[in-house]
Structure formats: structure tokens, C-alpha cells
Amino acid sequence: MTEITSNETTEPVAGDAAVTAEPSTESTAQAQGEESTEAASTESTETTESAEQTSASDDTDEKVSPLENEAEIAADFLEELLDIADLDGDIDTFIENDRAQVSIVTDSQTLVGKDGEVLEALQELVRLAVMAETDGRTRLMLDVAGFREKRRKQLREIATDVIQEVKDSGESVRLAPMNPFERKIVHDVVTEAGLTSESEGTEPNRRVVVVPAAK
Length: 215
Hints:
β2 (99-105), α4 and β3 (141-144) form a beta-alpha-beta unit.
């Protein structure tokens, strides 16, 4: 019997090659799922970081300085006081000379009193209200009906006249008793003129003494 030998070489089946080249449906789905989860996680992280940055920015914008806080507390206190006393007036707040400044804009002199006595007492009351809220000291200044501004101009004129008198006479001059606010104004004017001043006595009779320049 003659043996027949086939010269045909075994070739890979097309279907088998396709199976080998393409990943399984299950593997593809798993990979897509992992990519989707990773993308969602990244997006969530970016969203959280963006929200935190926005929140931090808002906190910075809304941050109130201690002096501004003092002024706001004082303004709230005075608004309630005006309502109780049935008095008219607008309240302005600002920061000047490293102090919280509060001013009641009104034509009434009720809260000023004679020589500003009521104003001084009210200022101390407002300071106590601020200290109760902040648990700290305050140098807040209160003005009513522009009294302090007018008084400041008067005191600068008085101090200027006294300075000239001291220069002409060469002798010290004692002024009338003043409160701390008024004495500070006189001291500043004297210093600007190159002379020396000091305070003597006890409250409420403490006064400024202008001393001639040393020769």
C-alpha cells in the first residue's frame, strides 16, 4: 500500500487568531469600570479642593479686624439705646489713629450735655459694653453731634495761643482742667511746636502745663 504524505502545512484558524488578539468581554468591562471609578474619584477630589479654596477665599473676604468688630458692637449698642430713649440719629463707624471711632450724627445735644459731660459718661458706658463682648480693653472714641471735632479745633487754637505766650514770656503756662481726650490734643500741638508739655493734678482737675524750650 502506498503511503500518501500530505504536503499541506497546518495554518492557524482565523477564528482562533481573533480570539487571541481581542481581550475578553469581561476583562474589557472590568477595565472600563476601573477607569470610570478613577475618573469619578478624581473629579470628586477636584470639586472638594475647589470648594475648600472658595470657602477659604470667602472667609478671608469676610474677616473683620478687632477694631472693626469693636465699632460694630458699639454701633449695635447705641442703636438700641437710641430706640429706647426715642432719640433720632445716624451712626457712623470708622477706624482712625489705630482706634475704633463711632459717631452719632444728630442735631440734638441731649447726649452731649454741658461741656461734653454726658458724652464722656456715654463713651465709658459704650466701652464697657464692648469689653463685655470682646473680653479685652478698648480705646474706642465716641462723638455726638460733631462735638469732639468742634472741640478739637477750639483746643488747637487755644494751644497755639498758649505756645506763643510761653515763647514770648519764657515762663510755663497752666491751662484749665481737661479730660484725657482734650489733653492729648494739646500735647500733640505743643510737640509739633517744638516745646514741652506735661500733665499735673488728678482727675477731674488734671491739666496741661506748657513748658518753655530749654536754653
